[in-house]
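ERR on first pass: missing label on line 2. Operator R.T. fixed the label and resubmitted. Corrected input:
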Amino acid sequence: MDLTFTPAEEEFRSELRSWLSANIPDEWRRPGFWESLPDDESFRLRRDWERDKALAGFAGIQWPTEFGGRGGTPGMKAIYDVEMVLADAPRTVNPLGLTFLAPTVMAIGTDAQRKEIIGPMLRNEVIWCQGFSEPGAGSDLAALSTRGVRDGDDFVVNGQKVWTTNAVHGDKIFTLVRTEPGSQKHRGISMLLIDMHQAGVDARPLKQMSGASEFGEVFFDDARVPATDVLGEIGEGWRTAMLLLSFERGASGISQYTEFRRQYDEIAAVAKKLGRDTDPVIRNKLARVLTELECLRLHSMHVLTQTERGRDLGFEASMTKLQWSETFQDLWEVYDDVLGEDDTLEQLGDLDLRPLNAQAMWSRSVTIWGGSSQVQRNVTAERVLGLPR
Amino acid sequence: MFFALTEDQQEFGAAVTTYLAERFDTDAVRGVFEDADGDGNPGSLWKAAAEQGWLAVTVPEEHDGLGLGLVEAQVIARALGAGVAPGPWRGTVLAAEAIRLGGSDEQKAAWLPRLASGEAIGAVGLRGAAPGVVPAVEYGVIADVVVVRTAQGLGLATGARATPVGSYDRTTRLASLDVSDVEALPGDASSLQARATVLVAADLVGIAREAVSRTVAYDREREQFGVPVGSFQALKHALADIHVGVTMAEHAALYAAHAVDVGLDDAELAVAVAKAKASEVALQATAAMIQYHGGIGYTWEHEAHFFYKRAKRLAGLYGGVDQHREKIAALTL
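pass 2 clean. output:
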């Protein structure tokens, strides 16, 4: 057993820490700061800050240096994930691009795509959206009906995507489109890289129950995309999508653990302030969540151990998602219990509860997006336990 | 970062599992279960425990042991739990641990080689205070030496008067001990209790994992409405959740063993987390084992009740889910 990081990894941690501490204004750490800004302003600040971070060498931690990455180890990526949370660093504005698209382009993109996509993404010159879900294709993604018809050197695309993160800020969108007329299910789909700055693309914000608008809808009305802007083979978009989603499997949950453990302490502080920390039921519920959080931490060490040894964890990723998302939701349900009959208030004495309430609302979404808990349980039962389909 | 078992540690566990599968399967367990008058320690299994080093695992090499740690011991505990194996393995290992940690040179020389070789049987009774009555000691009738709690700390009791105590978990045997002679054993009870708690958590994890495996195997074959019952989502989702829980408990038991072994700062929290989680999932998994076998799972002839009853007893031993949660709350609030 060795739960330490290498000297090189620890060196990376201190470099990153110094940079973060010198480059995050104190004001940004104030609770509610980001929520107090207009959406466009908040996005612009984060976009610029993240670009500077990339230019300082703290992006693409595990990517090969030939693609502008740092060429670091899985341990460095884990350290990065933890330190970003501990420093209250702004959330990335390019999550779908960085997590999913970039590694897919490195794996199967053409040389031209590698050159055109990866560098500009790292510098936030291009914000990428993901166009997968549709109104009629959620968990059953293969039911998608957005269609692309060949017209000369282009595809002409019509249809609608939904739950699109950063839709209104997006520059380009990697989109699953049915390019073979009349094709069914997983066949006849292509992954097209569509420019969102054109008349045929309309992105609209979707206001969520939290009041925020991280997601949006994207409408394609005779949008045009050159037939060369396909990632992977034409008609093989499902295969490309499965490869793309597999890059989530390296995610260990350590970033979620670090964030949620801090939230646990915040909720514990509220409980103390309200004198609820001596209630045996509250104590029991908080301890149950803490138990699950500790398990998540240990699970992330397990994932990191396996990743460092080059093992693909495969469908174990479903377990990681279930553990962090269900625990996060449980944590914020205990927050309701702590507040008791005051659980919907925005202010309680001198406590501003709005930032906490926002997290409590957000917790309802995490068991839906990225593969709902029900889908993850199916995957775990069928692919890991081997129960019949 | 290496949070996993080494190949040697995996092989150690696999050897126990293989031995039990080939030489002491659940039919053999049934023999012990139904032999109400027996001492609960089948000779062949005890001999294997001695010969294969299961008893000597944490005893230092200078006292004829293997000189390994609690991580290796929890590997064995997990395999024994999965096999619902009877016998005073845990008590013997823990008695040796108490003597190794606090014993005088004379006490070590007197007991460690004999405990490591299986010549002497050890037991632990941390409830009550000796001299006096110590309740529900595992294998108290056949133990040669019992580590007990005293007003000063710990003590070694020999020659206690033992009265068998019935338990519906007949994968083990319990006795109430009337202890009069106690020899002081230096060292504190809490470090022994931490080790005992980890080994019980590991046993529970083994029970839970085996309960899931056996249930999945059965539900893949068992047909109703013309299809395997394991194809129904009601079962799939429940079993998936339990599988995730058992996996987390495996992590927690492994980490707690390591934390205690090397004295990590969060060892106390780690032990409470491991026991709370392992108890919870073992109760869930063994209840699910009965439910998802249907009627046959409720019968005496099926082995599900061995797992369920052992889980019930161990889930409460050294503190149940709620006691450990209170400990966790005290440490983190």
